[in-house]
Amino acid sequence: MARSISLKQAYWFLAACGALYVTCISILCTSWAQKHAVYIHKLHTLWWHDVDKPEQFGFLKNQVQPLHITTPDGEVLYAWHILPIAKYIANEDHLINEHTTSATRFQNSVGFDLLSKDPNSRLVINFHGNAGTVAQGWRTDAYRSLSSGAPDKIHVLAVDYRGFGLSTGTPDEQGLITDGIATVQWAMDVAKIPPERIVLVGQSLGTAVAAAVAEHFVRVSEVEFAGIILIAAFSDLPTLLLTYSISGLIPVLSPLRPYPRLQRFFLGFLRDRWDTASRITNLVRKSQKLNLHLIHSKDDFDISWKHSESLFYAAANATSPSGLNMKQIEAVKLRQDLHEGGSLESWSSDGMRRIAKQIVRYGGHNRVTTYPCIARTVQHIFEQ
Hints:
Blueprint: H1 2-27, H2 31-39, E1 64-70, E2 76-82, H3 85-90, H4 92-97, H5 110-116, E3 122-127, H6 139-146, E4 154-159, H7 173-189, E5 198-203, H8 205-220, E6 227-231, H9 237-243, E7 245-246, E8 250-251, H10 260-267, H11 276-286, E9 290-297, H12 306-318, H13 326-332, E10 334-337, E11 343-349, E12 353-360, H14 372-383
Parallel strand pairs: 3-4, 3-5, 5-6, 6-9, 9-12
Antiparallel strand pairs: 1-2, 2-4, 7-8, 10-11, 11-12
């Protein structure tokens, strides 16, 4: 009798879990829910952190200057310009004595002059992942790390997409691509940094933005950047959702794996696709000179490192007009064993297009952005 009751309770518990799961997935079919689930732009720490006071995040006075970037469709993006530490120290008296500048007066600041008037300055444009702001989590540590390879030259520009932090608007795929394009256009037109002194860095969602922005510029205006670094990238959103678990714990569509028709049915409601694989393929085909680096940690439980491997092969395949199969790529690619540091594989085409994939053993999904392998890659790109 007791066993019968126990089985009945287990049955109803499983039924309730199933019903709850179907209800949640059905809600995610709506545009509003998808927007909040994919971008998580309303989850941030602005309630107790003031991004207009970067000193709260360990920066020196006026080492970070907030600025606004206006997009072609009228949104106003909030961004940070972060001075490299050696450049800051060399100009410390001027920076300390300068009144803290507002985001609307950045072009009148010492920091802007140090960026725009120095022919040796280099710029990393950073596109962050979903949720939060430019100051969220490991991001502020990542900015410090990005410039550490050349702390007298490498500036960082970090931007909040529309709907994130203090930026206006609401996010969607085309909107975020527009934001990325506007940010790069600002760097080239206003700060006067030529593309050969710019590296685009994206992490997680930001990899899709960075790839789309790079593909746009090479396709529309034949502009190519010094390099592109994609950290924890994914091939496309539908493929990612088939295996994705929120924080590595809550599965999205993987419980429906035995029912592929149901998976395809729910994926049909997906508004934003973020097809990075196709964009990278087009980027490689249209580029004359390309330096593309994919970096992923093996212990990333949000996005599997297999996505970066897939993108590496897609990029290598695109270097040949007739295409290459896996066996041909494996036979020619170079591989370096980094032992506990992971492995580094590279593919070169005509000596002008280089594609590299580094799989590190540790770093998770977010902390890896602060690791020296990223700073080293940035510095190597600028040296080339």
